[in-house]
Amino acid sequence: MFGLFKKFKDGFSKTVSAISETTRGIFGGRKIDVASLEELEEALYTADFGVETTTEILEEIKEAYRKDPDLKGKQAAEIGAAVLTRALQGAEGNLEGRDGPPARPSDEGAPSLPSIALAKEGDALPKKPIVVAMIGVNGSGKTTTTAKLAWMLKQDGKTVTVAACDTFRAAAVEQLKAWATRLDLDIVASHTGADAAAVAFDAWQAANSRDKDYLIVDTAGRLHTKSHLMEELSKIRRVLQKNDETAPHHSWLVVDGSLGSNSIEQARVFHKQFGLTGLVVTKLDGTSRGGALVGIWRELKIPIYFIGLGEQPEDLQPFSIENYAKAVFGLES
Q1: Are both 31 and 76 inside the same structural domain?
Q2: In this structure, are 206 and 305 located in the same domain?
Q3: Residue 48 lies in a domain
Q4: 27 lies in a domain?
Q5: Strand positions, DSSP E, the chain
């Protein structure tokens, strides 16, 4: 547990440093005062926590300060972490495979996706494999995340196939093949310019015949303004459903954490057009805007399954509210 928390603490070090520098180390041993509260407000906005969350954190710290003028910075940090924990209630995505149903889209305007029913003892299990579609714009880290997720599942004893369905971007297929070789992953791929839906169909057939637990589909990066690529996503889903009418069981948007609150609109558009069941937030180790996670959840209520805290395979970590809340306020586990 300590090792996992250290991943979060190191991964959010830039966010912590940004807050600390703005507040002159408010979360150390010194007492809170009016000036430090103003500095904290500025720091929280800079870290992209947003108006609603920043206001809640400050109001609770100010209330504690009114009751105890000797309030220390560490106590203020604990209050901030408690507010974040409360605000993120329900935000943890939990990939339990066939042990439970995936989260469903909460936006009434989003397409309705079939879910996996919770299997009871004696029931027939859903058809293998469980399909995870990875969606996002170019540069979000989607292909790398696909490989890291497959590796993580392998470490957990699951069997996985990855599908190289980003046939639009030059070298995307080769990139995923390189990751597959490095991490010893089962992969189904074609060539640049191939029909992505056909690759997805073949990948499902291969994963099913090999009795794989998961099929992770890496799709082409796209902007919502590119109608032909948005249609390609729909085509991939239709083709997958020829094999399994419940597929894809998970549709995750991979977003670049350094975009901060700007990623909210991106997620909203993809959710409306495709129906997201979860998020993966990458590149958080390279940004001081780690507070944006809270705004994404509060705005869209799409669960966060994984976060990217570095370049190595093990740096993709399941999202933990407790570890996140403590890490961004510089607290120890």
Answers
A1: yes
A2: yes
A3: yes
A4: yes
A5: 130-135, 160-165, 186-188, 214-219, 250-256, 278-282, 304-308, 316-318
Instruction: Give the CATH number of the domain where residue 24 resides.
Output: 1.20.120.140
Total domains present in the chain: 2
CA dist 41 and 45 (Å) reads 6
DSSP string, 131-199: EEEEE--TTSSHHHHHHHHHHHHHHTT--EEEEEE--SSTTHHHHHHHHHHHHT-EEE---TTS-HHHH
Single-letter amino acid, residue 199: V
Buried b vs exposed e over 240-279: b needs ≥16 C-beta within 10 Å?
beebbebbbbbbbbbbbbbbbbebbebbbebbebbbbbbb
Read off the pLDDT of each residue in 117-132 and give the average, rounded to a whole number.
61
Residues 103 and 25 in one domain: no
Range of the domain at 47: 2-87
Mean pLDDT of the chain, nearest integer: 84
Same domain, 141 and 68: no
Cα 282 to Cα 24, 143, 153, 253, 319: the distances in Å are 28, 11, 18, 10, 11
d(CA 134, CA 281): 12
Written as one string, the DSSP assignment of 272-300 is HHH---EEEEE-GGG-S-TTHHHHHHHHH
The pLDDT of residue 119 is above 90 = no
pLDDT of residue 224: 56
Q: pTM for this one?
A: 0.86
Return the residue matching tokens 């796209």. Answer: 222
